[in-house]
Amino acid sequence: MEEIKRFLTLKGDQGRKSKQAYKFCFCFRRIFKLKMAEPPQDIVDLFNDYSDNGVMTVENLHKFLTEFQGENHTIESAQDLFNRIKHLPVFLRRGLNLDAFFLYLLGEQNPPLDPPMVHHNMNKPLAHYFMYTGHNSYLTGNQLSSASSIEPIIKALKSGVKVIELDLWPSKRNKNDIVVCHGGTMTSPVELNKCLEAIKENAFDVSEYPVIITFEDHLDHLLQAKVAQMVSDIFGEMLYPGVEFVEFPSPEELKRRILISTKPPKESLDSFNEQENQEQKIKNSTDRSGAVLGNVSGYRNYDEVDIPIKDNEEAEEEAAAPEYKHLIAIHAHKLEHGLDNLLNDNNSRRVARLSMSEEKLKNSVKTHATDIVRFTQKNLLRVYPKGTRILSSNYNPLIGWTHGAQMVAFNMQGYEKNTWIMQGMFRANGGCGYVKKPDFLLSNKAFDPSIKRPVKKTLKVTLYMGDGWHLEFRRTHFDPFSPPDFFTKVEICGVPADIKKEQTVPIEDQWVPMWNKKFEFPLTAPDIALLRIEVCEFDLDRRHGFGGQTCLPVSELKSGIRAVPLFGKKGEKFEHVKLLMRFQLLPGVY
């Protein structure tokens, strides 16, 4: 168990090695006196308040859990927890002493979020949920020259992603075959059937809620028919039949189903537009997904809802793909006559999906913020990275979420701050890939995130200390000449009025930094706020080292003192590294 390893390591250090030597200038050695992990004063005081004569009994533990931690425990459940921590080497027969209590607080039994369990109402239409969404889900690296593979698709699905994007092209080797690749680039292709099989085998590993596949289709009607047959053969009864919804079904209704979303083929698009012209036509929208990078690979790159200009003969040839039309459960349409007409037309009887780039969204919300929020109350909005993000970087997802966009599409192979924010959002609701939108995004009075509103809650955060780096990394990992100088960044990501960044001072030359720092974050929209934490190793040249990160949904934080595990740049959980923190989410301003 981690707690035993932590205890034995620290006790061994205390007994044998409270000093650490580092080479300096080839022939010299610097000796550093190291502090060992010990309970902060707040923990000592807390233990004294909830113990008798230095021992915390089951009854004392139950009182601590209910009164201070705010947990719903019976004496029986407190006994179960008591039994689970009896293995600690400092456990007394009568109960917990201070060291055991400290190790419990810093251990696996005391996480900042509840165990994974779906707890949101999953019976509302799909438009009422944020969905964990990938962009170019088949790419292993950059957008220009990396390989296409099924491995990123599998990895995404196993991490909880529920919307997968595939770009469909005729194969260069055999025009009767269909491949998946990023058009207009040097990326290598992967066979479509392999991608579909990978989705089928891994779609419901994380949860049974539906998987949506968005096709960016560059095929003629013959290959579209072939896609339809292939999809039907592989998915069978998993496949949700093509319909045109008046209202989207709920995730609960769509459990273990796979839905296809793409633009309708030429024939159905014409008939759709003709009927909508008679019913106060919706002018569906999108924009181009960045500049074409050139016909390097023989594929021309269009956005998923752009239709190449064809002559009459080609248009007639493309106009008949009924099998393909019957695949499409979520129709994607393009903007033809301006954003105003689309967003303000509330008379359409059918719902659909609209796509726009991050740049288009940023510009649109300046004048149409409430219209976009209102549009996303019934329809789906997909936002995708701009075409210049060749290295698979990502944008701030809050620009989409705070305006109701359900599908904020990310390059899952990009590892940086915005990706960590995305991962933080989808830790909510048991990590099932669907997060219910806050009520204010579904209200009849459309929400505008740029307008500052009264503070609803204040998040109080106390950062006591960190521990575990000495078990996770080699001695010279952060600095070859001395122990690390850790400091921590703490920030709120949310609506503009709630954004706030804080940080601690660096603690020099210590593997177990003790910060004892308090922060306060007033929140006007706590239901969409995220708490982002990043530990850095201070460097004078400002190229600080990376010591771990996490991002947590504020609405799901457990109150009280918690052990917060940290993750690596790629989202992998560190085995030992944790922060000891206290969270208080209080009403109003403090």
Automatic annotation (TrEMBL):
Domain C2: from-to ranges: 437-568
Keyword Hydrolase: yes
Organism from which the protein derives: Spinacia oleracea (Spinach)
UniProt superkingdom: Eukaryota
Enzyme superclass (EC): hydrolase
Membrane topology: Peripheral membrane protein
Subcellular location(s) of the protein: Cell membrane
EC number from the UniProt entry: 3.1.4.11
Name the record gives this protein: Phosphoinositide phospholipase C
Main location: membrane
Catalytic activity: a 1,2-diacyl-sn-glycero-3-phospho-(1D-myo-inositol-4,5-bisphosphate) + H2O = 1D-myo-inositol 1,4,5-trisphosphate + a 1,2-diacyl-sn-glycerol + H(+)
Keywords: Hydrolase, Lipid degradation, Lipid metabolism, Transducer
InterPro entries: C2_dom (IPR000008), C2_domain_sf (IPR035892), EF-hand-dom_pair (IPR011992), PI-PLC_fam (IPR001192), PLC-like_Pdiesterase_TIM-brl (IPR017946), PLC_EF-hand-like (IPR015359), PLipase_C_PInositol-sp_X_dom (IPR000909), PLipase_C_Pinositol-sp_Y (IPR001711)
Chain ranges of the PI-PLC Y-box domain: 355-441
Record Gene3D superfamilies: C2 domain, EF-hand, Phosphatidylinositol (PI) phosphodiesterase
Keyword flag Lipid metabolism: yes
Segments of this protein annotated with the region Disordered: 265-285
SUPFAM superfamilies with a match to the protein in the record: C2 domain (Calcium/lipid-binding domain, CaLB), EF-hand, PLC-like phosphodiesterases
Pfam family of the protein (one): EF-hand_like
